[in-house]
Amino acid sequence: MKHMGKKKKWFKGQVLTVLPLYLFTLLFVLGPMIYMVVLSFLTRAETWGILPELTLKNYQDIGEPIYLKTFWESIKLAVVSTLLIVAIGYPFGYFMAKLTGKWKKRVTMLLMIPFWTSSLIRLYGWIIIFRAGGVLDKLLNALHVTEEPLKLLYTYPAVVVGMVYALLPFMIFAVYSSAEKLDFSLVEAARDLGASPWKAFLTVTLKLTLPGLLSGVVLTFVPSMGLFFIADILGGNKVILVGNLIQDQLMKAHNWPFAASLSVILLALTSVMIYLYRKISGVKELEGLV
Amino acid sequence: MKNRTRLPQVYLGFLLALMYVPILLVIVYSFNESKISSVWSGFSLKWYRELFRDSAMFEALGNTLVLGAASSLCAGVVGTLGAYGMTKVKFRTKGAVEYISTLPIMIPEIILGMVFLAFFSLLGLPFGMTTLIIAHTAFCIPYVYMLVKARLVGMDKSLEEAAADLGASPVRVFFDITLPLLLPAIVSGMLLAFAMSVDDVIISVFVTGVNTNTLPLKIYTQMKTGVTPKINALCTLMFAATLLLCGLAAFLGRTPKKRDSKKELS
Q1: How many Å apart are CA A173 and CA A287, to the nearest integer?
Q2: Measured between beta carbons, which residues in chain B are less than 8 angstroms from residue A96?
Q3: N or C, fewer C-beta in 10 Å, chain A?
């Protein structure tokens, strides 16, 4: 009996340890999420606020050409940025994993510093580079490539550069954590057995680092549609992403139900990507997330 | 198979250098005498002097630090206890709650911002420091939780069992054995959480009140309207703080690794 009592008390103690996490998660993560979904079906009041009348109007509004175009442009930008990030980040993560211990640590550190530096500081650096008569113009002038200022600030390419720069570390760390677990002797074995370098890469290296690569894609593709401040700062008003649209609807138009429906669509898109990632890679957690 | 080319090293070096170019430019131009950042007119510390005279900047700095400390501390407690407890309890909802609790760092930040804005105004919470702390805690918890969980998986359970067999109460086992073993993971999780909180713009934009400014919010609004090199000076100081924080993290991260390698040897 005494033992039973002790067991019970023990169990109570364990419940107490998870209680804060349960409460916080239900109240401040799940609760708000559910409210967002509900909100997306409510009616916007004439001037300010929300009427408790169910409607599908907010979702029908997304079908309007102007908003569809925003979604399409966002996805296009996300695809372009993600492809560039894969092309630049995959080799980086892979080469990093192949370094010897001492250098691995050094490169990780050198990578952590910009990653931990405020993204605004790093964006601001790009303003200095891109602005008319800025560093890039001066450099190109000095090299006699161009005479006229390029006026790259507030253009589409500037936004792409900003996105790639901000999100590249996520891809690198994801690929790296996958590639680090890769047994490089497998690649050698494939080569010894007569596989061409290309074939060895496709059948061994790429296959085994796929969870990292896919995780990197999820971690870069999804956020790139929401990072409105990059589009704001480097794109001026010329590039409008779903993120900018949501922000405008919330802060300027005060049409919260519509902002909620846009968020629900973006969330659905995110969920599909995470689901696909789990399905293809067979890994539950995103590689290299923390 | 030895690398016959130095291509990988060149590639890594080139890209790393490129990553630092924008940061270095911000630093260089913070010492620029001229107000227009495209013209270099000589070395000067005047923007730093102006920065230190700006009391609103200091208020924003204070807010940022309080917010980062409070939310990483809350996340430290909730995340650590949660990760520890989750390995012990056998609730059916465990998997679902774990998944939902990590959502804040998997979904685009803008959704989190929108969701909190709507939810807090539904609850009638006044926007300001409280709402900022709740929102930041939400995305800080996953960092602590995941790092502590990973550490728990790799931990030697026999130490806890031995202490329990020798008569230590569960609470004592937790504080004397488990917590010290988890400490490196907790600290790096909290540091990461702190860094994320201090850097956050997107979520803060939505949940802050009219009178509560944080440094990133101030920089963001200035970058949109028009910048003076004062921002460069501020960014430079923030970068120096980041360097310190990274150094600290590296220093703290050193100990457990040594321990692990010792374990492998024996």
Answers
A1: 8
A2: 12
A3: N
Q: How far is C-alpha A54 from the geometric centre of its chain's CA atoms?
A: 33
Q: Are B101 and A29 contacting, i.e. CB atoms less than 8 angstroms apart?
A: yes
Considering only residues 247 to 276 of chain A, which have any Cβ-Cβ distance to chain B shorter than 8 Å? Answer: 247, 250-251, 256, 259-260, 263, 266-267, 270, 274
**Amino acid code (one letter) for A28:** F
Q: Which of B77, B114, B196 to mutate to test the interface with A (most CBs of A within 10 A)?
A: B114
Q: How far does Cα B124 stand from its chain's mean position?
A: 28
Residue type for position A273: M
B223·A123 Cβ contact <8 A: yes
Count other C-beta atoms under 10 Å from residue B264's C-beta: 7
Long-range contacts of B155-162 (CB under 8 A, 24+ apart): B155/B181, B155/B182, B156/B263
Spatial separation of the C-alpha atoms in residues A161 and B100, rounded to whole Å: 32
Interchain CB contacts (distance < 8 Å): A and B: 246
CA distance A65 to chain B (A): 23
DSSP state for residue B176 in the 8-state scheme: I
Identify any residues that bridge with A50 across adjacent strands, giving them in sequence order.
A44
Tell me which residue in B15, B86, B111 faces A226 most closely, judged by beta carbons: B111
Per the CB < 8 Å rule, is A21 touching B86?
yes
Task: List chain B residues with CB under 8 Å of A168.
Answer: 19
What is the residue-level pLDDT of chain B in tens, covering all 266 positions? 444 678 888 999 999 999 999 999 889 888 888 777 667 778 888 888 888 888 888 899 999 999 999 999 999 999 999 999 998 888 888 889 998 998 898 888 899 999 999 999 999 999 999 999 999 999 999 999 999 998 998 888 888 889 888 988 888 888 888 999 999 899 989 988 998 899 899 999 999 988 889 999 988 888 887 777 888 888 898 888 888 887 877 777 664 444 444 343 33
Question: Which residues of B are less than 8 Å from A131 in CB distance?
Answer: 37-38
pTM: 0.85
Write out chain B residues lying below 8 Å of A285, CB-based.
Answer: 146
For A162, name the nearest residue in chain B, comparing CA atoms only: B22
Range B7-30+41-265 has CATH code 1.10.3720.10 = yes
Cα A82 to chain centroid distance, Å, stands at 9
Quote the CA–CA distance of B249 and B251 in Å, as a whole number.
5
> Where do the H-state alpha helices sit in A182-255?
184-192, 197-200, 206-224, 228-235, 242-251
**Is A149 part of the contact surface with chain B (CB cutoff 8 Å)?**
no
Sign of the Cα torsion A230, A235, A237, A243 reads negative
**All structural domains of chain A:** 65-281 (1.10.3720.10)
Contacts of B227 in chain A (CB under 8 A): 124, 127
Q: ipTM greater than 0.95, yes or no?
A: no
Pairing of the two strands A50-51 and A43-44: antiparallel
Q: Which runs of E-coded beta strand occur in A64-165?
A: none
